[in-house]
Amino acid sequence: MRKISIIGLGNVGATVAHTIVERSLCDTLFLFDKKEGLAEAEVSDLSDGLVNRSGHINILAGSLENLDESDIIVFAPGDITILQKNNDRLLEFKYTKTCAEEWGKKIKESNFKGIIVSITNPCDVIADYLQKLTGLPKERVIGTGTILDSARMKNSLARKLNIDPNSVDGYVIAEHGNSQFVAWSQVSIATKPIYEILDREECKKIEEETKIRAFETIKAKGYTSYGIANSTALIIEAIFQDSKTILPVSSYSEKDGCYIGHPALVGRDGILSDYELVLDEEEREKWKKSVETIKNTLPIK
């Protein structure tokens, strides 16, 4: 029986819940939120959407003992109003730090032996902090990292070149935030290096477009949710299917001493191994800067 708990049912958490149900990614789904009655309301709404559909998922308002039996905890608390006024995800930490401390203690006191998939911003910092607070093995705490940023980059390139975004090979790496960057030296289309297709100025424009996409969406609709829900679902699928999929998640880098977005092999036991991209000199400097940004924000070094 595949069991998932979702902590935090704002725009992102609720969309993740809907995506999990639509894709039948689990057998039982437990929902948690600090707002009284919200978990029960989401249970009712999601359950109504399952009538006359094939398959079945048990959807329940969660209690703390349900953490013990969960295979995956999706950690999704947040305050989108912070990003509606700013364009730096690090500014969310003052609020989300308290959420991590509250739930990190509860998870540690439970008998949870599964995997945490953390969405909450700042993504790399919260994933790192949750691992320290819960004491779970590093390979069993995973941030969504730069999966979404990589998807945005691929979409931008696909529109420019009039191709399917799935035909773009490459990654956005480092912080899920303002110090992220596209590893252009490793981006290719059908093995052809991107710099043989587009000039550096065109790539630079696409990179800037990738960075600001989220904030443009937030400005227009108040939040983003579908892309990050898909990113979360990809990790869940890789875990439950033991597919050993390479995804640019936020996982612990032994070399750099922090969680940071980079390609890693994901399967039933969480992070199975990670991949260090071959970067050019400029990209290596960007990577170092991003590591410093993350480490300077960590409350526990």
UniProtKB/TrEMBL annotation:
Active site: H176
InterPro entries in the record: L-lactate/malate_DH, Lactate/malate_DH_C, Lactate/malate_DH_N, Lactate_DH/Glyco_Ohase_4_C, NAD(P)-bd_dom_sf
Annotated ranges, domain Lactate/malate dehydrogenase C-terminal: 146-297
Chain ranges of the Lactate/malate dehydrogenase N-terminal domain: 3-143
Keywords attached to this entry: NAD, Oxidoreductase
Record GO biological process: lactate metabolic process
Pfam families listed in its UniProt record: Ldh_1_C (PF02866), Ldh_1_N (PF00056)
UniProt EC number: 1.1.1.-
Signal peptide: none
Hydrolase in keyword set: no
Binding sites annotated in the UniProt record for NAD(+): G8, L9, G10, N11, V12, G13, D33, I119, T120, N121
Family: Belongs to the LDH/MDH superfamily. LDH family.
Protein's UniProt name: L-2-hydroxyisocaproate dehydrogenase
Originating organism: Peptoniphilus gorbachii
